[in-house]
Amino acid sequence: MKRYFDLDSWNIVQNYFKDEDNEFCESIFSIGNGYMGQRGNFEEDYTGESLQGSYMAGIYYPDKTRVGWWKNGYPEYFAKVINSTNWIGIKVEVNGENMDIAKGEIEEFKRVLNMKEGYLLREVVLKYKGKRIQIKSKRFVSVKDKEIGVLRYSITPLDFDCEVCFLPYLDGDIKNKDANYGEKFWDEVSKKIEDDRAQLVIKTKKLDFYLCSSMKYDVFKNGEKCNVEYENIEKNKFVGSKIKLKVKRSEEVEIFKYVSNVTSRDFLVTDLIDKGNEILARALKKGFDKLIYEQREALKDKWEKSDIVIEGDEEAQQAIRYNIFQLNQTYTGEDSRLNIGPKGFTGEKYGGSTYWDTEAYCLPFYLATEDMSVARNLLLYRHNQLGRAKENAKKLGFKKGALYPMVTMNGEECHNEWEITFEEIHRNGAIAYAIYRYTNYTGDTEYLFKYGIEVLVEISRFWEERVSFSEEKNQYVILGVTGPNEYENNVNNNWYTNRIAVWTLEYTVKVLEEFKENIKLKVAEEEISKWKDIIANMYYPKNDKLDIFLQQEGYMDKEQLTVEDIPKEERPINQNWSWDRILRSCFIKQADVLQGMYFFQHLYDEDTIRRNFDFYEPKTVHESSLSPCVHSILACKLKRPDKAYELFLRTARLDLDNYNNDTEDGCHITSMAGTWMSVVEGFGGFKVENNMISLSPILPSKWKEFSFRIVFREVMLMVRVSENVIEVENESDKELELIIVGNEYKVDGGKNISVNR
Ligand code: BGC
After folding, report:
1. What's 33-306's CATH class?
2. Does the keyword Glycosyltransferase apply (predicted)?
3. What are the residue numbers of the active site?
C-alpha cells in the first residue's frame, strides 16, 4: 500500500509534491463547514492537474440528462452541486512575471490539514525563473460564522529584491468538470469594486439560485500594514485588484483576504448585497486572529463530542480522526433542506445529491455525536419530500404509495446512471429503517406520530403495490429489482429487498397498532390486513444445502468462485472487466444479504449470521466504499477481531491511502460514517435496545485501548476499552442504566464504572 501522507494523529501532512497526485490531494485537503466547502486548491495560479472546487450546500443545477436512447421514466435532469465562485484566488506576479507553480521547480513543499483546529496550511519554496520564493498560506471556512472564509497568504523572495504584485479576486466564471454538455451554469448579475473591497453576484442559469461573494483584503509588509495603490480589474464574472509592492530579499509581504458568501437560499435576493456586506463587516471586526481562535474553540467543541482515541495504532488513529473531521465538515444539521452527498464538498462525483447512504450509513454518527435535532433534520428532509416521492411513484405507474428517488436534491429523481439504479427500490426500506433507528435511539415519539408514520405508511403502500403474487409459488414475490449489489441488475426476489419490504410493513403495522391512540393518521383495516397477508406469505430465496439466504433467485447457477480466484491485476473488476462479465459473475460489489444481516442483527442468531458471512464475504470485492464497514461490524459480532480490523482499516484509510484509486473525484464521505460505525458499533459492540444502551466490546490485537463518546438521551458517556477493562463514565448529571456484556449496571451522573473483560 502506497503511503501518501505522514502518520500523525491530528494532522494530514503532505511532504512532497507531484503533479499527478495533485487532484487526489486536493480532495484530501478539502475544508468545509456544512454550509460551504473548498477543495485543497492553491490560491495562486496552477496550470497542472487540478480541479478547482468551491461548493455551496444546497445550490445545485439541473443539468440535462445525457442518454443514448430515451425511455419513459428517465429523470429529466441530473442534479449537480455546482462549482461556484473561486473566492480563494490570488494571482501573484514577481517582477512582472505571473507565478504559476506548475512552471516552477518546487524545492520544498508542505501541505497540512490541521484537524484539531480546522485550518489548511501550505508552505512552499519555489525556484521560479532562477530565483527562490517562499510561499505560505493558511485558510479556513468558519465553523462559527458559516458564510465566512478567510485566508492569509504571503510571499518572501529569498535571495533577491523584487516587485511583487498580488491580484486577489473573485471569479464566478467557473465550470463543473462533470457538466453533461460542457455548459457553464452561472450568469453574472452584478459586480462592484472599490479600493480594497469587491463584490460579485452571480445567478444560476436555471432555478435562479443567487450567490453574492464579497471580499476585502489587507496587505502587510514585515508585519506592518501597507497603504497600497490598487488597480481594479473587471471582466465577465470576475473582479479583482492589482496591488504592487517593492520587496527586499527576505522581506515577507502578506495579504489577508476576508470573504463572505451568501445565497438566495437564506436571504431575499434584494437583501443579498447588504447581507454580504454585513457579514463581511463582522469578519473584519473580528480580524484573522479572533476568527482563528473561534475556529479552534468551535472545533474543540466538536471533538469533545465526537473524537475517538485509539492507543497503539497511529495509522488507525489518524484515519478515524480524518473520517470524523470530514463528517463534521460536511453536515451540521441546522437546516432540514440539506443532506449529505457521497462526496460532501470534496468533489463533483455523485452530484452532491442525497442517496440511501444517508439513512443506511450516516445517521448513526450524527445520532450519537450531536443533539438529536441534527439526526431529526435528516429525517425531516425526507418527510418534506414525501409529496415528491408520491409523485415519483405515480410517474412510474403506481396508483398509490411513495417511492423515494435513488438520487435527489429536491425530492425528484435525478440520476445519471438510471439504467443501473432505477430498480434499487431497496432505498425505500432504508428510509423506513432510519425512522426506526432514530425513534429507537432517541425515544422521540412526537416525531414518529407526526412525521415518521406518514412516511412509513406511504412506503408500505408502495411495497403493497410493488409485490406480486406468484400462483406457482403460492407466495408473494418482488420481481425485477436491483439489490444493494449493483453488479447484478433486474433480478427476481433479491433476499434483502424482500426482507426489508416485509420488515417495513411489520414495523408500520406495529407502530399503527401500538400507538393507535396517539396517531391521527388513519389507515383502513383492509389495507392493514393486506399488509399482514404479505408479511405472512412473502417468498425468501434460500439455499437449504448451505442453510443460507440466497442473494436472489438463480444466484447458485453462477460459477461459484471467491475473490481469491481473481488475478490481482484484474482488480478492481469495475475498472478491468466488461460490464457483461461483471453481471454474469458471482462477485458482489457490496453488502447485500449481509446488509440485511447488519440491519436485522437483533432478529437472527449468531450461527445464521456466521453461515451467511462465511459464504458471502469471500465473494465480495468491496468495490463500493460502503462495503467494508458493514462486514467489519459483522466480523466483530462473530468475534473475529483480525478480520474486522483488516476491513476496518480498509474503510478508514480508503481515501488517505487512495485504496480504490478514485479519491481524486472526491472523498468517500458517506462511507466515513461507516468507519465510525465500525469502531463504535463494531469494536465497541454498541447498540440501543429496549431504551437502553448495550456494549459488548472487542479489542483488535494492535490496539492497547480505544475510547469514544456517545450522546444518548441527554446523557454524555465516555466509553474506554482496554485489554482487561471496560470503563464507562457518565459525564452528565443524570443516572443511566445500561448493559455491559450482558449484565445490567447503573451509573450515577458524574460517576464511572469499570467492568472486567
Ligand atoms: C453504491 C451505492 C451508493 C452510491 C453512492 C455506489 O457505488 O453502490 O450503494 O449509494 O455509490 O455512494
Report:
1. mainly beta
2. yes
3. 486
